[in-house]
Design brief:
This protein has helices at 5-12, 30-40, 68-81, 95-108, 130-140, 151-158, 169-177, 223-236, 241-257, 282-285, and strands spanning 16-24, 44-56, 59-65, 84-89, 112-115, 146-147, 184-187, 196-203, 206-213. The protein is α/β, with parallel strands linked by helices and 288 residues long. The chain has one domain: Ribokinase (UDP-N-acetylmuramoyl-L-alanine:D-glutamate ligase, 3-Layer(aba) Sandwich). Pfam families: Phos_pyr_kin (PF08543).
């Protein structure tokens, strides 16, 4: 059946966003969270998987990097066919995969690149070795529209101590401004002892602050993946960087606030990506 004019116009207005990241078998983070977030915020998600993790709400038990040649073939497949407006990058397993992703981004030149530097596990363990972190800084940061490190990741990127109080943020911000990327969104969710969660956009000499109230929940798995994917999706829809971050911050805050409506796993559960969708009442299901 041919599309109506309205249907055609709607499809043209749906931006395609690519996520390059690892797979989370538990569904709360990584590629799975990215696809949910992009879909929930108005985009069409496609994906390139860089690693396969054995993972649930209680932790990661194994990581299997995808062979570099297959990462490259996935990138060629999506870029050669789909009109990708924005790219979100998450977990990159090693230096070879980082270099391959950088080569393909230089080849295809997407309009926006949001890099979430997944380098530090919740336990504090480094997920990338120092050589891979150097490769990330050298190869990918210059291609990024925005990078979105949390406080432990910012410490790994800059070599500075982990910020544990707001008085340390000035030195951290100065070091982040020196990185070879267009802008940095420093996420302050790990800062202890505050009733709010601030993120700081560092762009040139300017700083913008995005604030949300903290939510008392243990179900925060996938927050970084979700926020960066939402930012990429809003950029693809034509919002300015500040507006894209503002909308994405509002979205992740609501997804966290609704997280306890889900009952997933026995550890740190996921945020509620589709909080805006109401379930069909059982009385209506019976009539379908």
């Amino acid at each position: 059946m041919p599309q109506s004019d309205n249907q055609s116009q709607s499809s043209l207005n749906t931006p395609i966003v690519l996520t390059i990241a690892g797979s989370d078998s538990g569904g709360g983070a990584g590629i799975q969270a990215d696809i949910k977030a992009i879909s929930a915020t108005g985009g069409y998600a496609c994906s390139v998987i860089t690693a396969i993790t054995s993972q649930n709400t209680q932790g990661v038990s194994a990581i299997l990097p995808v062979p570099v040649e297959h990462v490259e073939s996935q990138l060629d497949a999506v870029f050669s066919d789909l009109d990708i407006v924005a790219v979100k990058i998450g977990m990159l397993a090693d230096s070879n995969i980082i270099a391959a992703v950088a080569r393909k981004l230089r080849q295809y030149q997407p309009r926006f690149v949001v890099l979430d530097p997944v380098m530090v596990a919740t336990s504090g363990d480094l997920l990338l070795q120092s050589a891979a972190i150097d490769s990330l800084q050298r190869e990918l940061l210059p291609l990024a529209t925005l990078i979105t490190p949390n406080l432990p990741e910012a410490a790994a990127l800059t070599g500075l101590p982990l910020c544990e109080q707001e008085s340390q943020l000035e030195a951290m911000s100065a070091a982040l401004r020196a990185l070879p990327c267009q802008a940095v969104l420093l996420k302050g969710g790990h800062l202890p002892g505050t009733s709010h969660s601030d993120d700081w956009l560092l762009s040139g000499a300017d700083t913008a602050v995005f604030r949300a109230q903290r939510v008392d929940t243990q179900n925060t798995h996938g927050t970084g993946c979700t926020l960066s994917s939402a930012i990429a999706c809003y950029l693809a829809q034509g919002f300015t960087l500040q507006d894209a971050i503002r909308h994405a911050k509002h979205y992740i805050s609501r997804a966290i606030a609704h997280a306890d409506e889900l009952d997933v796993g026995r550890g740190h559960g996921p945020v509620h990506h589709f909080f805006a969708l109401s379930p069909i009442p059982s009385s209506q299901l019976e009539s379908l």
